[in-house]
Write a structure and sequence with these properties.
mainly alpha, abc type-2 transporter like fold, two-stranded antiparallel sheet, 78% helix, YhgE/Pip family protein, ABC2_TM, membrane, transmembrane helix
Length: 901
């Protein structure tokens, strides 16, 4: 609850800062309105792009000299020109020469030009003479003037060609049916001649089923042509992957060569399987340590208490020494005091022995502590960069500083042991131990000196120098480990007990007879050294005691991890060994087979594929043309022929001596006008418009609305900062996530008026045709919030790189979002990324409210946008504190160029 209050507190602070500055208010209002202007200008420009095509100048010139049909003079070019004069769909300009057409188009005076040659009419009617010559229409257009104009003028030329074709078919069919009608009226006079083909018609009729079978096979073959061509295209695409297959074959051969080495390395799983009992035993040992850890902690606490008690006793002994000195001339009193001190020392002896023993054992951890320094430093050698970053140098400085403190403590501990042993070394019993401790002290002092020297030049240190230091640390760790191991192998505490019991205490008991000898004992130095040793031990014990909870937790975690998953670990090792023994040989055999194929057979297969595809590609056009011609004959001509044959055969079978051709006569005497109209327009097109849109501007509105909302988010992320500015005092009050979410709310708040302004402007200012205005506003709000969330998270997590990603998404969305053109006409790349772009679902959702909502589609688009909103919100909230350091590092690198801010 407190975090939510903090977020809204920061959110209110954001808006107070904005409203406290007129420039800030102006910029925020501008960022709300400017994206809408981008959409409105484009929508208005595309409102009716094809409504003024009559202003497009197109030159026309006919040089047609005409022709005669019987006794009738015809000039198709003149007829075409008369019809174009009545046509106002394009700006027709009638010029007087072909040169005027070509020069006008070349200069840009006309967008296009059409020229009919002098033999146009003659070629159009050439079929009458039996020598067909297709007439030509010469069409010129200037492609560089404009991208869309050639498409519009091309439609004009095509429409002209279709009109001429239609008029020609209408005239020809009318004339043909006139002839048929005349034949129908005279066929009765020619029955005798028709009898000559009677048997041919009957024979053909008897084989119609067989002919139909052949015809169906031709049509089936034609129907399969697209599938065959698609398969051929896919087969051709296969050649694009041949280099990849070659590369894969090379990898297979290389992998097969290296497989014995891989197999040998994988055999380590068998060794690991043999070590399973040792792993299980290690788990038992960890569990035992975890179980006894509380007792270890209690023992350490008891050691600290006993050490402090011993320290108190020694202090009491030191307090008695002045009295002993004052009574030095009094032998009797001196003896009593000395014996009293001896008894106190004898009482503290077990504790002193424990402390000395603990200090020696503490030295056993010196090697591990020194080695941990090298382990920590080696982490910074894994980075492939040759130089250390500032963050890495700071981390290394912290490690070296801590190492210096640790080494100082260890040296003090060794010093304390040496001083104490020197005080009790009455018969040179501890000379060897003291010598080993001095060597240990020298080694630690040398390491500390190297550590402090490296720390002094940390800003200029290189990875080579760091590696040299790590090597020295590891060598020194081995040396210290050997020295400490040698010390621990000696029974020092037993020697201490022997020296104090056999030498020191008897001397004190026999103080009267050995007064001279006991006077040589420097009790003050001995007790001072003992006190220092115990104090060092207490400091070290308290340090270890402070670390015990963390150590205990780590041991408990290790016990839980190891013993809690011991079955899975053992099963995993056994499964790995089983795979090595059973599956790996099978894989090796299959790999050898694949490599043999890649090396020996694949080159031949590749050559055969390439050669076969080249041959098929050469022959397919010829085969396709032949099949299409046959299919056209079957589809267009065969039904009529079949019907005529069937009717003729039926009529013939009605009489034995006289042929009844009444049905044929009726067919030939049919209505000329109706038959001619059917041939000219055989199919009637009935149009049903779904989700109508008033104009092109309204149809383009969803695309440009979504585009302006994305642009609005980009503009805001470029002008406004994603990082929340706070004073040093306020930074302690709020977390990074709270500032990130607060600024997120500010960005989302600005997205709302951006969506409202553009949708209200579309509807009220431009008059865009919208079937559901309320839903158009709601959908635009959802799109604006989703887009703003995506852009804010990208910019907040990755800075300028995130803004660059948002710009890349914008560029890809213009072509890959399916906004203006169907995605199917775009390239394969844009078809692939189409479902991955947020823009796709935004445009589709806005189209639903514009043309009419189809809820099964709309719900899917809404779900995607809502999912994107929450997914980016959660990712940003979670990741922001983690990537802040990386973001600052990237920002620092970009600023080094002194070009990017």
């Amino acid at each position: 609850m407190r975090k939510i209050k903090n977020i809204f507190s920061l959110y209110r602070l954001d808006w107070r800062r904005i409203f406290s500055n007129p420039i800030s208010i102006f910029l925020v209002v501008a960022l709300m309105i400017l994206p809408s202007l981008y959409a409105w200008f484009n929508i208005k420009a595309l409102w009716d792009p094809y409504g003024n095509t009559k202003e497009l100048p197109i030159a026309f010139y006919s040089a047609d000299s005409g022709t005669t049909l019987g006794d009738k003079q015809l000039n198709i070019g003149e007829e075409v020109e008369k019809k174009l004069e009545e046509n106002d769909q394009l700006g027709w300009k009638f010029v007087t020469s072909k040169e005027a057409v070509t020069k006008g188009v070349k200069s840009g005076k006309y967008y296009a030009g059409i020229y009919l040659p002098s033999e146009f009419s003659e070629d159009l009617l050439s079929f009458i003479n039996g020598e067909i010559q297709k007439p030509t229409i010469e069409y010129y257009f200037n492609a560089k003037i404009n991208a869309i104009a050639p498409k519009i003028t091309d439609k004009g030329a095509t429409a002209l060609q279709e009109q001429i074709t239609k008029d020609f078919i209408e005239t020809a069919s009318s004339t043909l049916f006139d002839v048929f009608q005349e034949v129908g009226y005279t066929v009765e006079d020619n029955l005798v001649s028709i009898n000559k083909i009677k048997h041919l018609i009957l024979s053909t009729n008897n084989h119609l089923d067989q002919i139909d079978t052949y015809a169906n096979e031709i049509l089936a073959l034609k129907a399969q042509l697209p599938e065959l061509k698609t398969k051929l295209e896919k087969a051709n695409e296969l050649t694009d992957y041949l280099p990849e297959v070659d590369h894969l074959a090379e990898k297979l051969i290389a992998l097969n060569t290296k497989f014995p080495e891989v197999k040998q390395q994988a055999s380590v799983i068998l060794t690991l399987q043999e070590k399973i009992p040792e792993i299980q035993k290690a788990g038992e040992q960890v569990a035992m340590v975890d179980e006894d850890f509380a007792q270890i902690v209690a023992t350490m606490t008891q050691g600290i208490d006993e050490a402090q008690a011993a320290l108190t006793i020694i202090q009491q002994v030191q307090d008695l020494l002045p009295n002993v000195r004052q009574l030095g001339n009094d032998a009797s009193n001196f003896t009593e005091k000395t014996q009293e001190a001896a008894k106190e020392l004898q009482t503290a002896l077990p504790t002193i022995q424990k402390i000395i023993h603990f200090n020696l054992e503490a030295l056993g951890g010196v090697s591990a502590r020194v080695n941990s320094i090298a382990t920590d430093l080696r982490l910074y050698l894994s980075n492939p960069d040759t130089s250390l970053t500032e963050e890495e140098k700071a981390a290394i400085t912290a490690i070296l500083t801590k190492a210096s403190t640790t080494l100082t403590q260890q040296i003090q501990l060794v010093d304390g042991l040496i001083n104490w042993l020197n005080q009790v070394n009455m018969n040179q019993s501890f000379d060897g131990v003291i010598a080993s401790l001095n060597q240990t002290k020298d080694a630690l002092s040398g390491l500390k000196k190297a550590n402090d020297a490296l720390l002094a030049v940390i800003n200029q240190i290189s990875k080579e120098e760091l590696l040299a230091y790590i090597t020295r640390v590891e060598q020194m760790s081995a040396t210290v480990n050997d020295l400490v191991t040698n010390l621990l192998n000696q029974d020092i505490t037993g020697q201490i007990d022997q020296v104090i019991t056999n030498d020191l205490l008897p001397a004190l008991d026999n103080v009267k007879t050995l007064l001279d000898k006991s006077s040589q004992i420097d009790f003050e130095s001995l007790l001072t050294a003992t006190s220092g040793t115990i104090t060092s031990a207490i400091t070290l014990l308290e340090k270890y005691q402070a670390e015990m909870p963390a150590i205990g937790q780590e041991i408990h975690d290790a016990n839980t991890l190891l013993n809690g998953h011991m079955t899975e670990i053992v099963n995993g090792i056994n499964r790995g060994a089983e795979l090595y023994q059973n599956e790996l040989p099978v894989l090796e055999t299959k790999l050898q087979t694949a490599a043999t194929f890649a090396q020996n057979d694949w080159p031949k297969v590749r050559e055969e594929i390439t050669t076969t595809l080249a041959t098929v590609n050469d022959k397919v056009p010829t085969v396709e043309s032949a099949i299409n011609m046959a299919a056209t004959l079957v589809q267009e001509d065969w039904p009529t022929l079949k019907q005529g044959i069937e009717k003729a055969a039926e009529a013939i079978k009605k009489g034995e001596e006289v042929v009844d051709l009444s049905d044929i006569i009726k067919l030939l005497k049919s209505d000329v006008a109706a038959e001619s109209d059917f041939i000219t327009n055989p199919v009637e097109l009935k149009t049903h418009e779904m989700y109508p849109m008033d104009n092109n501007g309204s149809a383009s509105t969803p695309f440009y609305t979504a585009l302006c909302l994305w642009v609005g988010g980009l503009l805001l992320s470029s002008v406004a900062a994603t990082e929340f500015y706070l004073s040093q005092e306020d930074k302690a009050k709020y977390t990074k996530r709270e500032t990130f979410v607060a600024r997120m709310l500010t960005f989302l708040t600005i997205a709302i008026p951006q969506a409202l302004i553009v949708t209200f402007g579309n509807y009220f200012a431009l008059g865009v045709d919208v079937q559901n205005p309320v839903l158009s506003v709601v959908f635009a709000l959802l799109v604006a919030l989703s887009f703003m969330m995506i852009i804010y998270v990208l910019a907040g997590l990755f800075g300028n790189i995130g803004k660059g990603i948002a710009i890349i998404l914008l560029v890809l969305s213009i072509s890959g979002g399916g906004g203006n053109y169907p995605i199917q006409v775009s390239g394969k790349f844009f078809q692939m990324i189409h479902p991955l772009l947020p823009f796709t679902y935004a445009v589709n959702l806005l189209r639903e409210s514009a043309g009419g909502v189809y809820w099964p589609n709309a719900i899917g688009y809404i779900a995607v946008l809502v999912a994107l909103f929450f997914a980016f919100a959660l990712i940003g909230i979670w990741a922001y504190p983690h990537v802040e350091g990386l973001n600052k590092k990237i920002s620092a690198l970009t600023k080094e160029s002194h070009f990017f801010h």
